[in-house]
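Example for tutorial group B:
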């Protein structure tokens, strides 16, 4: 295999992971759940109203956001709070930086667009913006480039799921504001922009409602999805769009409350960054979780989503979700499925060549998957995107190789040769398992693409609190290779994906990277490692290949198949210098195991047997024999564990088959029914006898 040609696709693969027509997508339902009729025939519909807690949190955030976003303080999102509270003084430096960024058409301009659009809508009632600032905001919104089919060069990322939601919502709402005005860049009127954006908005909402998010549980990009949704829920002229946007927000709140621990999004992430994981858990979603559900605490004054939630005139999180969140704080077991597989495109009515379909795969970081790559190259040619974001950063020699293969069988052949990378980084269907007790949470992606290469993914995590938590990765970088200054994979996110299998308080994590012809030494670093910040634990014990820690009343133990050693550079890195390695984690607590010494004793006396094929047999002190073969089921005490694919939701409050359009959540006698087929958001409660 020609290594240079391989590197061309690899370069594109790595780049595509980094940005920041309906085709039958919403046709049909396999199962319709009508909880109001089937589960509670005596129920009556009630209005969705804010709880006292929600209103108090909203008022608290609005006050601190507005206070800390005045002249010389706060970023662009905080200026939204200033408008909402009727202020006339703003941080003009932040505004000018936004105007310049959007005029230059830089990456993440769409984040800033969302705040400018929101300021204009809020100002219709507040009349707070000074005339000169308001005119600059209007000019910036009118002059923006809203989608890749508009004229002009740019360095903006259109590809990923969160960006698509922001661009489409921004275009729709800007068009509504200026229906009769001509937008200089496109030459279209506002009304024409509304017409252009509406089907893309509807498609994006329906896909999220039916399939969930491809950037699953992202502790970064949920914070970009929610502002787009809040703008739609608050200001869209179309009632169905407003309602569906509110429904997707409800779904996101349900996702977070099922997978969060002590206010932390302590689970697998489709996309995240080192900075969110290494010093302490630093989710961008913390404030949104607190505002929507009451879990955790306020942690900022100008968060993107929180500023929008605090200024929302329409959206409120249904109280049933706040109540369920409170109930889930201590003990919870949850299964969930998000996303679809590239190979299943025809099943869902999605092709691989039409630009409207290619954009769907782009939202899953699947632009160079074998099925999609021909359509991607055609799109780049059709819209002259070779010099834009991502592709403009590819060195000319590699770009030439890609162009040279376009339209030939060689392009797909090379993508297939590099499938562990070209398809590995695509964010396909993933099943999440979460097990929570008052003292710990174990959560991760069950059996997700073992041996393949991913970017920005975080597969599993064992969490005791914000400081004390454990996870493993197998770095998938390129050693000392410098291709155009590109960082192909981080040390602590992405890289080679394990076969992760989890049940209750035990997980078996096996790394065995799939060889890639022609790239071997460039991408295989021949070691996996664990993040185990021993200095942050109250107690720490190392015994042979086991390391164990206590934080408060929670315990965690981690085992390495091969002899591990601590890094000389950082105190939290435990390294296993082998191509293949199995890690085993067991969690415990004072209430479940007794003292930490008793937990340690049980772990020391346990037996682990891993044969040359990677088959694992572990005598867990708490679960009994845990068996995981290189392929096939995970068995606990002789019984097979369900590793997925899971239903869309499966827990104490909701069961929904994947690919269906109705989410039904039941708690405390109430039922929340989100019907994406009918576009209805309904809350039911038991009928109250007259006089009570």
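The residue assignment follows.
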């Amino acid at each position: 295999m020609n290594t240079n040609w391989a590197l061309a696709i690899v370069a594109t693969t790595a780049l595509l992971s980094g940005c920041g027509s309906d085709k039958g997508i919403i046709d049909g339902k396999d199962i319709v759940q009508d909880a109001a009729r089937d589960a509670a025939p005596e129920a009556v519909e009630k209005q969705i109203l804010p709880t006292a807690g929600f209103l108090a949190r909203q008022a608290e955030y609005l006050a601190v956001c507005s206070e800390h976003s005045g002249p010389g303080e706060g970023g662009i999102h905080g200026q939204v709070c200033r408008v909402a509270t009727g202020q006339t003084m703003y941080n003009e430096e932040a505004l000018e930086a936004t105007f310049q960024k959007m005029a230059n058409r830089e990456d993440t301009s769409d984040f800033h667009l969302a705040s400018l659009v929101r300021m204009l809508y809020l100002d219709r009632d507040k009349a707070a913006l000074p005339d000169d600032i308001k005119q600059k905001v209007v000019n910036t919104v009118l002059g923006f480039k809203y989608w890749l089919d508009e004229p002009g060069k740019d360095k903006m990322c259109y590809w990923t799921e969160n960006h698509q939601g922001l661009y489409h919502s921004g275009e729709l709402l800007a068009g509504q504001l200026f229906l009769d005005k001509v937008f200089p860049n496109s030459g279209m009127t506002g009304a024409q922009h509304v017409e252009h954006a509406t089907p893309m908005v509807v498609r994006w909402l329906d896909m999220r409602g039916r399939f969930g998010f491809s950037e699953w549980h992202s502790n970064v990009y949920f914070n970009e999805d929610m502002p787009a949704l809040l703008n739609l829920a608050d200001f869209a002229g179309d009632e169905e769009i407003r309602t569906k946007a509110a429904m997707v927000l409800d779904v996101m709140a349900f996702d977070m409350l099922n997978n969060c621990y002590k206010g932390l999004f302590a689970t697998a992430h489709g996309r995240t960054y080192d900075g969110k994981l290494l010093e302490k858990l630093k989710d961008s979603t913390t404030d949104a979780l607190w505002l929507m559900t009451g879990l955790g605490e306020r942690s900022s004054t100008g968060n993107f989503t929180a500023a929008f939630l605090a200024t929302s005139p329409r959206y409120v999180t249904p109280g049933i979700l706040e109540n369920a969140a409170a109930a889930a704080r201590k003990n919870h077991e949850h299964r969930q499925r998000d996303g679809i597989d590239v190979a299943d495109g025809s099943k869902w009515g999605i092709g691989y060549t039409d630009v409207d379909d290619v954009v769907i795969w782009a939202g899953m970081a699947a632009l160079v998957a074998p099925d999609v790559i021909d359509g991607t190259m055609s799109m780049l040619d059709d819209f002259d995107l070779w010099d834009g974001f991502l592709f403009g950063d590819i060195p000319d020699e590699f770009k030439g190789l890609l162009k040279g293969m376009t339209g030939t069988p060689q392009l797909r052949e090379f993508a297939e040769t590099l499938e562990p990378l070209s398809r590995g980084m695509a964010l396909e269907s993933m099943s999440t398992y979460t097990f929570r007790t008052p003292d710990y949470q174990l959560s991760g992606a069950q059996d997700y693409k073992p041996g393949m290469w991913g970017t920005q993914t975080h597969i599993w995590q064992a969490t005791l609190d914000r400081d004390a938590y454990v996870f493993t990765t197998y770095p998938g970088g390129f050693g000392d290779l410098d291709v155009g200054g590109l960082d192909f994979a981080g040390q602590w996110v992405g890289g080679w994906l394990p076969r992760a299998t989890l049940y209750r308080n035990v997980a078996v994590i096996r790394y065995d990277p799939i060889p890639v012809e022609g790239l071997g030494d460039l991408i295989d670093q021949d070691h996996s490692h664990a993040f185990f910040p021993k200095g942050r634990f109250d107690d720490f014990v190392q015994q042979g290949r086991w390391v164990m820690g206590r934080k408060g009343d929670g315990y965690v133990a981690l085992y390495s198949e091969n002899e591990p050693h601590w890094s000389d550079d950082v105190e939290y890195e435990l390294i296993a210098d082998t191509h293949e390695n199995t890690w085993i984690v067991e969690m415990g607590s004072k209430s479940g195991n007794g003292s930490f010494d008793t937990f340690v004793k049980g772990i020391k006396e346990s037996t682990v047997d891993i044969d040359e094929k990677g088959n694992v047999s572990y005598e867990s002190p708490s679960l009994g024999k845990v068996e995981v073969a290189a392929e096939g089921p995970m068995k606990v005490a002789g019984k097979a564990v369900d590793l997925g694919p899971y239903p869309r939701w499966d827990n104490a409050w909701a069961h929904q088959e994947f690919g269906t359009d109705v989410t039904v959540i039941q708690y405390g006698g109430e039922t929340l029914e989100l019907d994406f087929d009918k576009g209805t958001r309904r809350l039911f409660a038991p009928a109250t006898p007259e006089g009570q």
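Residues 61 and 310 are 6 Å apart (CA to CA). Compare this with the pattern of hydrophobic and polar residues in the output above.
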